[in-house]
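Dissemination and training. As part of the outreach component of the grant, students in the summer workshop were shown how a complex can be specified as a set of sequence lines and then modelled as a single object. The example used during the hands-on session is reproduced here so that future cohorts can follow it. Participants entered these lines:
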Amino acid sequence: MEKKIYTDDFEQLLKEKTDQFRMYPSKRVWHSIYNDLHPGRKWPSVAMSMLMIIVLMLIGYLNTGDSILNRQIAAGGTDEQVSIATNDSKKVKNKNRPSANAKDQQLVNAGSGGPAGEDIISFLGIADNSFLTNIDPATGLNNDLSTKNSGVTFVVTKEQPENRGKDILQTVDTYIKTNQIFTDIAVVNKKKKTRAISPSNSNRNQDIDDQEEFPDGNLTGTNSTNKITTELKDANLVTTTSISAGSPESNDARQEASLVNENSITKKDLNAKKALSAEEKAWIESYALHNKPPRRGKWKGRLAIELYTTPAINYRRLSTDTKGSAAAFANSDVNNAVSHRPGLGIEAGIGLSYAFAKNFRLKAGIQFNSTSYGIDADETNHPILTSLLLNDLNTGYSYPNTRTSTLANPYYNTTALQPVTVHNTTLQVSVPIGIAYKLASVNKLEWFAGASIQPSYIFDGNAYLLSSDMKDYVSEPSLMRNWNLNTGFETYINYKFAGFTLQVGPQARYQLFSTYKKRYTLIEKPYAVGLKIGIVKGF
Amino acid sequence: MLAGCLKNNAAAQEALYSRFSPRMLGVCYRFAKNREDAEDMLQDGFIKVFTQIHQYRNEGALEGWIRRIVVHTCINILKKNKKFSDSVDIIHANSIHVKEEIIPSIMQAKQVVECIRTLPLGYRTVLNLYAIEGYSHKEIANMLDIEESTSRSQYTRAKAMLEEILIRKKIIQKQKKRTTFYGAVSPD
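and obtained this result:
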């Protein structure tokens, strides 16, 4: 099958040169081969990812519902507290503060003017026995049940520490040492201080057309094989060993011996030649027609940029946080007292993904979220007097606060005439930080599962709030929180093509804290289910 | 190492892979459109090597056996993605000649490979199989589902084009001499 006789010098040299060519595959190739040959060993990854998702969902569930509210109301005193953002974006830190003092009261009064007359309360630590104790900085939950008035509003969890992973250089060095020794004539020439271009002294941007010629490269005379071989040998550019497909495995050893014999290279030089640095290997691989510079760092191979969008359906869950009120709002299940319908939302973002381990990706980025759900209401002919049930943050008791409304709740109010659908919306900017785990991979397909936490800033939105008698809706966007925390869970399929990776899969997003400030007695926890579509490109 | 691979030992498989993968990836790179495709070909090729390792009968070098599997894998992948047209006109090899004698003088491995990769897919594949891998035109025709004459003509054109590229890129030098025929097809 194989040709043994080459009657064409060009073909012979072509074959010799291409046989000298080496390329070093990325680690993912071996990992894919390994997973294909040993599929049983990757099944634990499914269990691990399910465990991770269950743990995160449990954390989310423990942060919901009345249990948190009751603990916050009953707790008292102060431990450590960090509060974020007021309406004028002021940050206040109260660390390990004892019970209230006049200064705290001033802060409260400066922002709010007192609970009786103002709608807006500064998002600050609250004075006078109403601090919470035992705040867990990671979750913002109060574990102590003695607080009377919940002053803690929101605790920003710190960024998860980055897993640095292995030392990249050490990994590269280990990889190189375990690979086949690369016998490249260019390296030999470099060692012998010929005019071959090297990483240390080359003009890497120089076009091939401007490249210097080797001093011994100009051959004259006939095209006899002997002369060519002799002169090429003199130029240290070719070995005398015949290389062909199917040659014995000692071919490399023969090459080395030939180099030593023919080109007067000492054993020491040869050993020195064998110990190629990562930079030299990278340069050898990357040196192409246009003098491409070698790759600047291994970390780039692990880093990728993602662009994604997630159209989603938004839902919400309602509950109340009231005390000492006889209002209908406080004594009914509000979920059964309203007519709301899911709405369409969108998420779009850009992020970075870093493969710090074989099957793990650390992700971070920035994204924009738009959430919405519909409210069935009836428009009234004229404004009507109503009230919102608010919490006195000083005393902890709920009280009605007068408002006007032009929207009636058709469940309880039959006097209105014109049905209309209004929307509660939010516009958010989030910083998702998460982790993804590769469950399986086959050829160009990969299956991932991931989770993230997303500190979010709500910069705009609409809020139609249920009145204390549940008969009307009052527009009051000022009672919306500016800061919140969301969690995301996703699973997706990666498909690699043309240097890009297409990412598609379902995603669920859940808000941990109420949409509204603590002052409003209604707790709303929205969640969204959508389909994430993304494009990933490595560096 | 071979015995370990026969027992599906992961360490032996990794050792074999580490030893031969650099050269085999170089082979794949000559057939592929880009490095990623080349790595995919390498991956498929080595999976076949390990699953068929029991068929290796110690006749000839292990590297040659692996290389044949890898080359066939490359061809199969290329065939899946593109059909090799046999609509090229038949051109007898003897009619191809160059005016000036070409004497290869300076060739760097990577430069030569990159020049080969700039050729059109059909030319590149036939050139790789014939000039480098050592298959005959008859065998190439069977592998690519084309006519033997098409293989010959494609190879002739490929070689001429490659020479032109190498000259243009100043990888080889021309020496002005008498006109000689260049491009005779070797017998199978």
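The CA atoms of residues 240 and 258 of chain A lie 7 Å apart. Students were then asked to discuss how this feature might be tested experimentally.
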